[in-house]
Amino acid sequence: MSFDAKSPSPSATGWNETALAVCRTPLMSVKCPSCDEIAVFGEWNLLNADSRETIVEMHCQACGVRETRQFALPDGVPVCWPLSRFPLVAEAMEKEAAGFAARVQQHVKAMPAAVFATHPLWDEAKWSATTYQWHPTSDAPPVMGLVFENVEAGLEIFREAERQMHNEDQFDEIRISIIEGVVPGQENRPGYSVHLCADPDALCSHATLEEFVVDPNIVPFLGQWNRHYPIPGTPLLLPRFKQEFDTHKEFMLAPTVRRPSGKLYMKPELGIIKKAIVFRKLSDITSPDDIDAAAALLPQLITPPG
Ligand SMILES: [Zn+2]
To answer: Is CATH 2.20.25 the classification given to domain 10-77?
Structure first.
């Protein structure tokens, strides 16, 4: 056998394979190329959405050796581990998600929910708060109001939906989730997150009909987010909304504007009737594959008021 100076040393090849094994089994330790103990754990995050370039940091708990490898993440592997690295992936995905939203606008015309959830005016509209109203004697379903700082842009998003959906999300293709739970670093400011996006299954099937492929890694980055901090000392609105939704199995999603007086006015004529909403706890979100995974990074993007 001839000697080839270019071939990597056995331990270098070993660590490349270890990096791959670590990504495939995030919860289990794998064999260490240095000491042969099954004691290597890894952490990783995607660096580039297009090339899937990923950095993997490994640590052997037996011999203490640390190694880092960079390679293209194989399909079927979560974009990061653990979940706390999700903000780094969000950074890598940001540009890609914007381009993808633009393609959704062009292609997925058969799915008004996707057009609504990725409307280019969301940035300008500045969804700043979420509020609720209900009938005093519960004779009608409750309303969830999205408060926009830029009234005209916010109303235009709903006008477009009205033209296409005629005031009803018939197949519940707009997914809305409310995620409650204290986030690390904000233990003294209770709040909850509201996530609005196109239902991923519906989006994928509509996209297929239009011969347009949806990268599942990008879906969690396509929606709109609001983190709500109830004003201390004021009555909580969310528990009552949940109770009213439970009674009627229906609610209306409506744009809401703030008058110069500070009062909020809902616009039910542009509202969308919905029969589904997801209520969940932040502590139940443990995987970067979770559609609501970005709830884990919101506190770093939004500073609570006052
Ligand atoms: Zn070792």
So the answer is: yes
